[in-house]
Every structure is written in structure tokens, then in C-alpha cells.
Amino acid sequence: MTKIHERITAVIKALNIKKIVFANRINVSSGFVSQLCSGVSQPSDRTIYDICREFRVNEEWLRTGKGEMFTSLSRDEEIAAFVGSVLKEENESIKKRLIFALSKLNSEQWAMIDSIAQTLLSEMKDAGP
């Protein structure tokens, strides 16, 4: 059975981020993350909570190795996470401009967008992977 330090290392690898980025996101030093990954230090309950919250890691998996590494998001949670990430982008990003434009549509324009989206999804499905 893997140990918690191996699971923390696995999270960093699965996220494809550097330890310094991981450290910054959970407000600890990169040296401490290195100690966690090597097993020199053990994470506090607070550090475990921060890892799970920030990276959507399944707490039971992180503590015990049981279950899936990441938690699943509901549709609303996925939308909220996407919008939150877009809000952090520069003002003139394509995503931000598009969301702003969508916010100005009336119901008839939304119906047109829905039709276009359904066509695109159908074409993507037909094209395959």
C-alpha cells in the first residue's frame, strides 16, 4: 500500500505541475512540499484539507489510498470552476470576451446559439477522437 507522501507526489504528477506551483496554491513553502514528497514531514490536517480543496483531491484517497484520486464535480461546479478560471484571465482573453457577449443575448439569440452548439457537438461526435 502506498504512503501519503507517495500519494502527494502522485497528485503533483497527475496535475502536471511543479512543486513550487503546488506549494504556492496551498500556501506552503516549496521546501515543505519537498519534505512531504520525500516522507521527511507529514502533512497536517490543515495541509490535507488545503490539498483536497485546491486540487479537488478525494480526502479518503489522500489519507488511505482508497477510492479515486480526484473528486467528481457536478455540472454546476464545473461551470463555476470554469467561470472562476476565466475571471482570472486577462481582460481581453477570448473566453472573457465571449462570456461577456453571451451575457448580452436575448432569448431568441440564445436559441440560435443553442442550435449552433448542437450542430457543433453533433459534428464533433461524428468526427470521433
Give a nutshell description of this structure:
The protein has 129 residues and is mainly α. The chain has helices spanning 4-15, 19-25, 30-38, 45-55, 59-64, 75-87, 94-103, 107-127. The longest helix is centred in the last third of the chain and has 21 residues, at 107-127.
**Structural class computed from helices and strand pairing:** mainly alpha
Assembly annotation = single chain
Query: Uncertain runs with pLDDT below 50, 5 residues or more?
Result: none
Count every helix, treating DSSP H or I runs of 4 or more residues as helices. 8
H/E series? HHHHHHHH
Q: Kindly, what is the distance between the CA atoms of the first and last residues, rounded to a whole number of angstroms?
A: 35 Å
What is the 3D form?
elongated
State Rg. 20 Å
Portion of residues within helices: 55-70%
Strands, total number: 0
Q: Please indicate the percent range of residues in DSSP E strands (runs of 2 or more).
A: under 5%
Q: What's the story with the biggest beta sheet?
A: none
Describe this protein's structure:
The chain has 129 residues and is mostly helical. It has eight helices and no strands. Helix 2 (19-25) packs across helix 3 (30-38). The two termini are 35 Å apart. The mean pLDDT is 93.
